[in-house]
Amino acid sequence: PVAASLVRLEQSLLAFAAGGPMDGLAVLAGHRARARTHSSQLPAIQAHQRAVEARLLTMVGDLDGAERALDLASDTADVMASRVHIAVERGEVQAARALVVRWPGDPEPQVGIERLLWLAILDHVDGDDAATRRRFATVVAEAEAERNVGLFRAAGHHALGPARLLYRTAPTAFLRAIVDRLAATWRPAGPSK
């Protein structure tokens, strides 16, 4: 059941990458209907599933639905990233910063880089260009070592401003790829709910 749950989540993320957030949500809904007979998922997998669902709902502008998806989730790093994303979408920068402070520690390097990415985004929202460039440069250097573009896609259009800001002063081919991908996939969501 654990492996099957992870495969279902990856299938929803692949559907998102190929077609968009609505496609990913459709795959999740189909799997959820079948999974009701197996409610023995581990809490960490349930939290990851809720975080994926919340991110996809956030991308289509359903912020209330995204928050409901996270209601019963434990505060893992991906759940926290989803909560921060929702707060930023709502324009609640102070609430987002408070969430980043509570970001769970985890030995996995990806967790710290994602936290730093959101700090750079919040610095950008606050208009602190120096802090944005400094933090975002660290994130890009770490991500480039792993060729991890998905990190930025998960933050959505919020990563585009910091990426462009850094690109103006420190252009690299990897950073150009990030800017191009974010700009190509960014579609303004409908009104927030």
Any overview of this molecule?
The chain is built from eleven helices and no strands. It is an all-alpha fold and 193 residues long. Helix 1 runs antiparallel to helix 2 and helix 1 packs parallel to helix 3. It starts with a helix and ends in an 8-residue tail after the last helix. The relative contact order is 0.09. The C terminus is likely disordered.
What is the fold's blueprint, element by element?
Elements: H1 2-19, H2 21-35, H3 43-59, H4 63-70, H5 77-89, H6 93-101, H7 109-125, H8 129-146, H9 150-155, H10 160-169, H11 173-185
Helix pairs in contact: 1-2, 1-3, 2-3, 3-4, 3-5, 4-5, 5-6, 5-7, 6-7, 7-8, 8-10, 10-11
Straight-line distance between termini: 34 Å
Task: Provide the residue-averaged pLDDT.
Answer: 83
Which segments are poorly predicted (pLDDT under 50) over 5 or more consecutive residues?
189-193
Question: Describe the biggest sheet?
Answer: none
Helix % is: over 70%
Please work out how many helical segments DSSP would assign: 11
CA-atom Rg in angstroms: 16 Å
Query: How many strands?
Result: 0
Q: Strand content of the residues, in percent?
A: under 5%
Order of helices and strands: HHHHHHHHHHH
